[in-house]
Amino acid sequence: MTTNARQNKQWRPATNLVRGGLQRSGFDETCEALFLTSGFVYQSAEEAEQTFKQEIERYQYSRFGNPTVRMFEDRLALIEGAPFCRATATGMAAVFAALACFLRAGDRIVASRALFGSCYHIASVILPTYGISADFVDGTDLDQWEAALSRPAAAVFLETPSNPMLDIIDLAAVSTMAHAAGARVIVDNVFATPLLQHPLEFGADVVVYSATKHIDGQGRCLGGAILTADQSWFETSLIPFIRNTGPSLSPFNAWLMVKGLETLDLRVRRHCENAHTVASFLEGHPGVERTFFPYLASHPHHALARQQMSDGGSIVTINVRGGRAQAFGFLNALNLIDISNNLGDAKSLATHPATTTHQKLTVEERARLGILEDTVRISIGLEDAEDLIEDLDQALTRAAGG
Ligand SMILES: *Cc1c(COP(=O)(O)O)cnc(C)c1O
């Protein structure tokens, strides 16, 4: 393996997405190589012994590390501006590993209530079985964070923008309060993508991704990643946890992800542009009660979104005028946009959170998050925005009985 000799951290993000972390084998291939191998061989018994004693650093077993996975980790680290990255098999493996490496029995975490369903399950159901308690706050209310963090806590976990109502949480303010309470801040940055928001710059300690979403972005495979600037935590907690518990990303999926990063800048620009165009259209449509998009002036946290994020993202959430019947009628009338709970995909996808992603919550819990019977989340893809608008327009008109 030869490291790309001209690789340097001074490259701009679009260049790093194409070339960052690239390591060529002795065959001088243009494209990143796929090392689809579980293990590696040693030249001698002595070399194997030295490897296991950690006297020499080399690939040993793909649960510990793999050259294709490393290229993905190194490339993503350059984009995030975080020196340390480990890839995982799914986004949820990243969330659980990051939390598990900070928490001990008797600890307490504080989390924003508006979380991805499985993240909420980890915090509210799994962690308590290990003696770790969780307190939930309205992430947009700094008074609630202040009250919850007036007592010591080990970790703060939050998602911004949140799923599906696109709440924006003040990363700098929450990080300051969290650190004063002794807590480390873990941010699920999926909705912002690694290009639109860099939580470490606002004081967060760890960033986690579901790479399944925009990083692959083409609906092919699952993956995740954990990024940090905390070398000591990374080396003494996270690496041994991953090596021994095995949430490792497969080399094949890492190869898809590294190729996904190559086009991420282009795709995210188009996602954001399309989403903004569609959101502006929906905001004026008689079949829509309310439209949520962080870069619309009508968004409740619009100023903070402009401050923290370099664009509005790819998700638009609406309240369809009427109720559940009209929301279902709208979804069923879509011709181009698919009904699917995934997001960040090249294809535009729409879902009814109250009966899919958030159906396990009670009506009251959903109402507290702003998820109503008429709420529909739309992940805006890479199609022509005019085709999306035509599809949304005819579906809304049909749902209204027009
Ligand atoms: C999808 C998602 C996850 C989980 O990722 P998987 O790759 O499906 O395990 C976590 N957080 C957010 C915000 C997500 O959208």
TrEMBL record:
Pfam families, per database record: Cys_Met_Meta_PP
GO cellular component: a single term: cytoplasm
Protein EC: 2.5.1.-
Modified residues (N6-(pyridoxal phosphate)lysine): K213
Pathway where this protein functions: Amino-acid biosynthesis; L-methionine biosynthesis via de novo pathway; L-homocysteine from O-succinyl-L-homoserine: step 1/1
Swiss-Prot/TrEMBL catalytic activity: O-succinyl-L-homoserine + hydrogen sulfide = L-homocysteine + succinate
Cofactor(s) listed: pyridoxal 5'-phosphate
PANTHER family in alphabetical order: CYSTATHIONINE GAMMA-LYASE, TRANS-SULFURATION ENZYME FAMILY MEMBER
Assembly with partners or alone: Homotetramer.
Annotated function: Catalyzes the formation of L-homocysteine from O-succinyl-L-homoserine (OSHS) and hydrogen sulfide.
Protein name stated in the entry: O-succinylhomoserine sulfhydrylase
Gene giving rise to this polypeptide: metZ
